[in-house]
Amino acid sequence: MSLNVVDVRHRYRPAEPLVLDGVHLRVEPGEVVALVGPSGSGKTTLLAISGGLLVPSAGGVELCGRPLHRHRLRTEISWVFQGTNALPTRTVIDNVVVRGLAHGLSRGAAEAEARARLDEVGLAALLDRSAGTLSGGELQRMCVARALMGDPALVCADEPTGQLDAAATETVVQALTRKGSQPGDARARRRAMVLIATHDMAVAQACDRVVALADGCVGVPA
């Protein structure tokens, strides 16, 4: 049930140099892995390929034993993007519930889970607010809550704390890594693999493992 990236190479145009050059990566169920490296190192490209948004030039990706780019696995993967993709005229809870409905949950079950996920990221008091009235940091936290809905196999997060202050960053990191969970807490039972591209070493160090990229290759762990 793991994520396996095998000898992936990628260039955006034929005449350009490789952005990724022979990358191997394996992520186990429940593992939280940080991708770090300077701008241009290939971490965002690796995240996009791992999450099925980009087909590699060579090599392959398997998710839960199936070739990622040959199967429709969209419900198995959720994303937190740098730019929030909210429904601004809908309420906060409706923005999160929509992912549960896409997974086949009833409205009642989706709302119950959405309340729990929003509580995890500190937005329990804003359920009925219009998403368009939230600050950038609040929107980012809402998107994290939405990504955790429906027990996905893989959560891909691209700089999920880039717009957050220190307190909100800690809340989001706890939600993504399940740190602070008590026995029996739903967070402790999540099977999701989490892959986070980040420049924030405090975020990276809260993950189970750090994968450092440089010049399109996996280097020595940071």
Describe the structure.
This protein is α/β, with parallel strands linked by helices and 222 residues long. The chain has a single domain (30-53, 73-218), classed as Rossmann fold (3-Layer(aba) Sandwich). It contains six helices and ten strands; from the N terminus they run E-E-E-H-E-E-E-H-H-H-E-H-E-H-E-E. It has helices at residues 43-50, 92-102, 107-120, 136-147, 166-177, 201-205, and strands at residues 3-10, 20-27, 32-36, 58-63, 66-67, 77-80, 154-158, 193-197, 209-214, 217-218. The strands form two sheets. The protein has a six-stranded mixed sheet. It has a four-stranded antiparallel sheet with strand order 2-1-4-5, covered by helices on one side. Helix 5 links the parallel strand 7 and strand 8. Helix 2 (92-102) packs across helix 3, helix 2 packs parallel to helix 4 (136-147) and helix 3 (107-120) crosses helix 4 (136-147). The longest helix has 14 residues, at 107-120. The protein is globular and about 50 Å long. It starts with a strand and ends with a strand.
Set out the fold topology.
Elements: E1 3-10, E2 20-27, E3 32-36, H1 43-50, E4 58-63, E5 66-67, E6 77-80, H2 92-102, H3 107-120, H4 136-147, E7 154-158, H5 166-177, E8 193-197, H6 201-205, E9 209-214, E10 217-218
Parallel strand pairs: 3-8, 3-9, 6-7, 7-8
Antiparallel strand pairs: 1-2, 1-4, 4-5, 9-10
Helix pairs in contact: 2-3, 2-4, 3-4, 4-5
